[in-house]
User: Fold this.
Amino acid sequence: MADAKVIPFDDDRSRGGSTQRPPRRRGAAGRRGGGERTAGQGAEPVQPVTPLPAGAAAQDDVPAVGAEAQPPRRQEPQGQLEDGAHGAGGGLERRIAGGLSFLRRRITGDYEVDDFGYDAELTDQVLMSLLRPMYEKYFRVEVKGVENIPSDGGALIVANHSGTLPLDGLMMQVAVHDHHPDGRHLRLLAADLVFVLPVINELARKLGHTLACAEDAERLLGQGELVGVMPEGFKGIGKPFSERYKLQRFGRGGFVSTALRQGAPIIPCSIVGAEEIYPMIGNARTLARLLGFPYFPLTPTFPWLGPLGAMPLPTKWTIQFGEPIATDGYPPEAAEDPMLMFNLTDQVREQIQHTLYKLLVQRRSVFF
Assistant:
């Protein structure tokens, strides 16, 4: 359209080199006065107008050279325009009505909570919405291999643990919920400390977290839930920055025994990006013992910058779910075989460690 040149209608008559249109002929009834002429009086005979062929375009419809032909704008019926104008308002009204209905159910207690305290409605409509901006905008999490998570039935996701604060578990929970085709919920097994902290305890229960014990894990798997565990525990999340992405010991393999008893597949999960959000360069052990914490982290920003130092660094995350390791082919007594549990635990650990190294090689930058 930048090369098109608009030619005013008057220029057709002012250009000497352009083809002049012949004057329009008037009919006999259209002439003024009584000076009507007939063919017998020497007037030129009126030639009949020949219509243009069906496929030919009129002279006024020929576009200028270099102009791009634009399709005609579709005229919407008046009714559709009015419906579209009210569509946005209708959607807003529905959201307001849904929000009021949600508040009414929360006030009256008309909502369901399972035996572990999990509140599916609150998680979907509130808690996930609060975590999602950090997941999508701040850490910009990239998810791979989500197709390895089964669509239904119990399964155990085993992941590495890092980052000083357990944000990696929350981001993994959002990744499963938002990227899995069936929108499955991940029920995380958490340490005892989580359930003694005020506010944190209640929020963890509402999100579907439960105590990291074999009984609760087996019960959830038996109900067909997707369970997540991070066997490194405080050894992984509280390790110094110099040991980043080096997996710690996976306990005694209790998660393998739980999976064997329920015949649930084990899905290794590798998380890259969490190690750098709080680079732990020191541990104030005395202060940690006074506060009852397993460690008190010292980072380049915390506690030196006060509350501002508690902000995590905006690193770029990648979460990859590996191929599941089947356990339903073993006999029931296999859960009591220490050698089998050791081998399966080592297999899961090695697969996570190998994937971490591969993702680190592929990563361009810590922040991009």
